[in-house]
Write a structure and sequence with these properties.
The structure holds three protein chains of three kinds.
Chain A (H helix, E strand, L loop, with lengths): L1 H21 L10 E7 L6 H20 L8 E7 L4 H13 L5 E4 L3 H14 L2 E4 L16 E3 L4 H15 L5 E7 L2 H17 L4 E8 L7 H8 L5 E5 L3 H13 L2 H4 L1 E3 L6 H4 L13 E4 L9 H14 L5 H20 L4 H8 L3 E4 L2 E4 L11 E7 L8 E8 L7 H10 L1
Parallel strand pairs in A: 1-2, 1-3, 3-4, 4-5, 6-7, 6-8, 8-9
Antiparallel strand pairs in A: 10-13, 11-12, 13-14
Chain B lengths: L2 H32 L6 H18 L6 H23 L9 H23 L15 E4 L2 E4 H23 L1 H11 L1 H6 L4 H22 L10 H16 L4 H21 L4 H15 L10
Antiparallel strand pairs in B: 1-2
Helix pairs in contact in B: 1-5, 1-8, 1-9, 1-10, 2-3, 2-4, 2-8, 2-9, 3-8, 5-6, 9-10, 9-11
Chain C lengths: L4 H6 L1 H18 L2 H26 L7 H17 L5 H23 L4 H21 L1 H4 L17 H23 L2 H11 L1 H6 L4 H27 L9 H14 L6 H19 L3 H15 L3 H24 L2
Classes of the chains: A alpha/beta, B mainly alpha, C mainly alpha.
Amino acid sequence: MKRRVIRSIVLTVSIALIFSWIGPAQAAEKTPIVIGFIHSMSGAMSMYGISSEAGGKIAIDEINAAGGVLGRPLKMITRDDKLNPETGLREAKDLLLSEKADFLTGTISSAVALAISNYVKREKKLFIVNISQSSSLTEENWHRYIFRIDTNAVPYWGYAPAIALAKTWKAKKIISLGFDYETGKNSLKAFKEKYLQLVPDAKIIDELWAPLGTTDFTAYITKMANSGADAFFLACIYGGGELAFTKQAYAFGLYEKMKAIQPCAGDVETWYQVKKGESYPKGALATCRYPFWAIQDPKSKAFVEKHQKLVGFWPSYGAMNQYFIVYALKDAIEKVGAVDTEKIITALEGMTLNTFVGKVPIRAYDHQAMMPNWYGVMDFSPNLTFPHITKVDVIGEEGYHSVDKIKALRGGK
Amino acid sequence: MTWEALAGQTLSGISVGMVLFLIAAGLSIIFGTLKVLNLAHGSLYMTGSFLCYGLTSLLSQIPGAYWWALLFAPILVAVLGGIIEIFLLRRIYDQEMLYQYILTFALILILGDACKFLFGVGYQTVAAPWPVNGKVFLWGLSFPVYNLFLIGCGLAVFLGLIVLMRYTALGRNVRAVTYNREMANALGINVPKVYTGVFMLGSYLAGLAGTLMPPMSVVALGSDMAVIIECFIIVVIGGLGSLPGAFLGAIILGLLNAFGIYIIPKLAVAFAFMLMIVVLIIRPWGLLGKPE
Amino acid sequence: MTKNFATKVFSIGFWLIVSAIFLLTLPLFLQASWVSLINEMLIMALAGTALNLMLGYGGMVSFGPAGLYAVGAYTTAILLTRYGLPFPLAVLAAPLAAAAVGLIVGWFCVRRSAVYFALLTLAFAQIIWTVIFEWYDFTGGDNGIVSIPIPELLYSITHVYYFSLAVVTVCLFLLWKIVHSPFGTTLQAIRENPMRAEFIAVHVRRYQLAVFVLSSFFLGVAGSLFCVFAGSVFPDYAHWVKSTDMLVVCLLGGIYHFAGPIVGSGVYILISKIISKNTTYWMFFLGIIVVILVLYMRNGLVGFAAEKLAQMKNRSEVKKNKDVP
């Protein structure tokens, strides 16, 4: 029996040694400042992950070529969250604990973002969101360690389209169609709230909800066509769903029958494959998070070119946001003079980012960057191969929930 | 509800149902004969969609590229199905159902990544081809010709399969194997060949559905998972292994959805599952299936 | 000590002692992220073993274990967040809630056999998922529930690890007892031949329902543990992909051995982590591994090892007999 115990101990120790050997060895030279990047790198949403990673890479290469930050190079470590909060949380832990990441960034899925946000709150580490739209991240579930350099669902899906519509067509009878999930419902709520306040005599005559992931909207479209509305509003129908909806609505002649308010249609990543002569949301009022064709700053042009060279397609807004995030971190670290999470948070609060889309303040109260939302009317123009927003106009801070409104929301919980 | 609305919802419900029928028919045929619940059926469908996109862009110089794709893409998917049956499924027919489930699940993963590797991660589209790209006016409602074309395809496939199964020697062999495998074997029917043939036929139908969808929808990763659950519901409602059952199930599901959104839009998501559970409890072998 | 090496390697006691020492001391020498990973493995091992009670011992292929796992996780989360129940109560309530749901679901499912049983479990799990996803006011919808008030003592990775270790050990011990009780034996008899079992006056359906409820109970424990471990819950816990994870874990380790899902869980989580760290085509490689398993190693890792060890043992015994003149 005794020998058995000794044997067991020997075996255990050797297994332990093997395990501890697996851990990464630290390089001896100048230790880089590590930015952990968690995104959907595989599966249906991987285009955003790949594009955002490229955006971050461009910024890091530029900064490192110019001597790094405080003499230290920047390094980004990418991990795949598989759109799954369990995996996202596991990778976040691994990045912070094994890779000794100084900051976490990324995510498209709001569930993944919330899981990571909950974790960094305990660990007191900084997490900056570059895509996830759920407004609760910076509202009900806000804490000191989370920032978002991106729009969120309230302005993008709700307030900005409402303001844009009130400035343009002032449609009176609107029918809505949304994906049946939280962000979809919040989008319609925000749109209704803002639009009915701006155009009090308007009415949402019906609300339709399709299961998340629907690609055949035929039955919804016939209902919309027969509803007698003078405009329809898409609440959070995006990506493949939006492309499929547009194709079917176009075939049914819905765009000729009523006006279309189609937030998201302005974002290039859904539309860059669509050529002239194919169906597209003709004449729809659309919002956009990065209309690079309408941005004159040469830095933006250079960014688009670098992104094309790196991954072979047009940059998504996620790429732009990740680029800004890396620069925001650089500015904050240089201002503080050290990689100190608490001080960097204080530096970021109220900082104004000087970007190629203009000055973007980070609101101290909710750590939300006041990223502009652009809008325009979908059309083709001679120098681009895909449909995009034209007559571009911009909505700034007025598109976001006010601080008072957020105070009320947080108080309610 | 006005007459136009009624006509509109009926027509669109049937059109949605027909597309689902095309996918579910293959699933049902395969289950009927092989007793394999092919989880990867949605992946075969998605592969068909990507092949349709690949072929139409490859042949874009040739007029009528889509029609060539419609001819070849499903055949390619059928060949893929044949390879899967011969090299993988054949080895586990005598094993427990669990292994089939896990094996076909592994195929979902493999085919999904293969499509991503070959065709990239973006959303792709295919334009509706001439002469089915216009609109017609029916009961004061404009309706795309392509949806009518889909309804026609669904009906044609349904009738074609019925004829194939009932009135041809091939169909007789398949029915014999389905009815009693050992007996069919004893009577000199080459059972493994029939199995391969049926699996290829099922794959062909999935590929056909996959090729017919892109002109009215979108080619994207993730569509494999989106269709498979709906197809399960259809074959369970109609009766596993029953072709007319799949047809009926698909139409019921399409109409349920089309009128459900009129009557109780909030519950549209849960309708299909509730119907499936009710059917499974009161008539577990499905509406047109046979009790075990 | 006349026993030779092979016999010793084969003895369960030896492995139990090795793993006990290893598991008890590992936070001392392992990096925190590895401790956290092993914590996940422990929870998955419990979920897998609970599922295997149905799969391997009862011969009932369930496609929907994740639904019951999620019921456990959400029970703890909701009781802590919305009702502010004391932590021990919220954790204890999880398996009870899962067992209650398991009783209802199981009552419908055990009336049908084979493929219909499987499809019904899948449908019910999908309904649980839909309810969680849609009922925003109660479950938080697709945003899940975050910031669950877990006692601060369990914030540390080491502490929560020991908590999981203790609970999983107790549960595995109970499951072991169940499997080796007359109940477990009857269950295996039903698996081998339900009709014959019926003939010797075994109420087959009642047994199957009982095992469904027991399995749900332990799945609920696993879900609750994951809620405590992660501090947040999401509808993905009920998704059918999660169910498939659990099935693969059982298959990988081997469904005809008690230790199967435990080994399977460790290997599966390790493999998927290593693959996804190195390539974004992780689905492809995972798929290939599963295909190889199904084609060549149907009895799983534990089954394979047991077979090889039995051969070794046999050979050495033959040799020993030869030595005796």
